[in-house]
Structure formats: C-alpha cells, structure tokens
Design goal:
mainly alpha, two-stranded antiparallel sheet
Length: 217
C-alpha cells in the first residue's frame, strides 16, 4: 500500500513552496487520500507564510527594554512636572481640605450621577453591611475624579482643541494625586478589616498621617 502511494504522488507535477519544499499538484484522477494529504500540506504552508509581528523599538534614552515589558526611568524634567511620581502610591492620602481644593477648581457635571446606587441591606450581616459601606465610599470617591476629566475635556474643546502644556501638566498631576488618594484609602480599609478580624481593640493603625475620612465632594 505504501509503494502505491509513493508512485501515485511521484506522478504529480510539482511546484516549489516558499521554503523551497516541493509540493505536488493533484490532477483529476488523484485518489482522495492523496488530496487530503496535499490539503494538509498546503494548510501548513499557509500558516508558515504568515508575517511575524515586530515590536516598535523606541529610541528614547529614558526607556529601558525589559522582556516583555518596558520600564520608564525617572529624570529631572519628569520629576519636576510630577513631584508625586516617587511617592508611595498606596500611602499618599489627602486631607479633606486638600481634596476640596483640588475639586473646587472643577465644576460638577450637571448630567453626571455622583452618588452610588442604594441597595436593600435589610437582611445582610453587620460585616456585609460594613463592607458594602466601604465599597460605596470608594465608588463615590471614584465618581469625584471624573470632574477634572470632564473639565479638562471642556477646556480642550473651548480652546479649539489646542493643548496647553502647563494646563495638561496640572491635569496629569491632579489625576495622579487623586488616584493615589483612592488607592491609599483602599489600603487603609484593608488594614482596618485585617485589624478587626484579628480581634484588635480600638482604632486600627493608619497607613498615612491623614485620619479624616469624610467625603470631600
């Protein structure tokens, strides 16, 4: 049976593939098993011919390649533009006065719903209600940082879509600080929950110097 297959394939005319492999061309009298083999070979050849994707190699001297990611090295100009970039992102909380100062420069969006939805917590346990309250507070804080985003977009449209460097730098600085404040707030919640679960009495340790947890917008 093997000899018959070899002799049948040897009678087919041949062409060269992209990788210098001879592929026989079937004729009308070719048996089904030969056509199936040729079809599989052609499928493999088509997969091999697919172009390989190449990564864009940046020539920025401040970008260090790391497989498969890249690291941004800080330098004097970026540290001057973003002083908080070297701070502990998860322990950089703001006081209420600082948050109000940030948000006071950005008007509330009239069409934006800043208050999280209210859920029925009648049959929930104390721990579940407490966790729900913590998540609601996080949602409320997140809704607040949309205000500088909306206001920046408004200014961009009003200025005929021309980007001002100083305004853009201020916007980026504000967003980074507000996001770090929320991340720090979540860190504090984790500490408090762990402290309670271990049977700690009194107030849980603070991850930063800010002990004020009132909503600021």
């Amino acid at each position: 049976m093997t000899e018959v297959r070899q002799s049948t394939l040897s009678n087919f005319p041949r062409v060269m593939s992209d990788n210098e492999t001879e592929i026989p061309i079937p004729n009308e009298n070719a048996p089904n098993w030969a056509l199936q083999i040729l079809e599989r070979i052609q499928n493999l050849e088509s997969l091999q011919r697919q172009p390989e994707t190449t990564l864009d190699q940046s020539e920025d001297k401040y970008i260090t390649e790391r497989d498969p990611l890249r690291d941004l090295q800080t330098y004097p100009e970026i540290l001057e533009a973003l002083p908080s970039i070297k701070e502990d992102f998860f322990k950089l909380s703001l006081t209420d006065i600082q948050k109000r100062r940030f948000l006071a420069t950005c008007p509330r969006n009239k069409d934006m719903e800043y208050d999280p939805p209210i859920l029925n917590e009648v049959r929930l346990s104390y721990n579940s209600r407490r966790m729900g309250s913590q998540l609601v507070d996080i949602q409320y804080r997140l809704s607040g940082i949309t205000r500088p985003i909306d206001f920046f977009t408004h200014n961009l449209i009003q200025n005929e879509r021309k980007i001002n460097f100083e305004e853009t730098k201020d916007f980026v600085r504000i967003m980074q600080i507000l996001l770090a404040d929320i991340a720090s707030h979540i860190t504090q919640i984790r500490v408090e929950n762990m402290y309670k679960s271990m049977g700690g009495q009194g107030k849980a340790p603070e991850v930063s110097g800010n002990s004020n947890k009132k909503r600021a917008h």
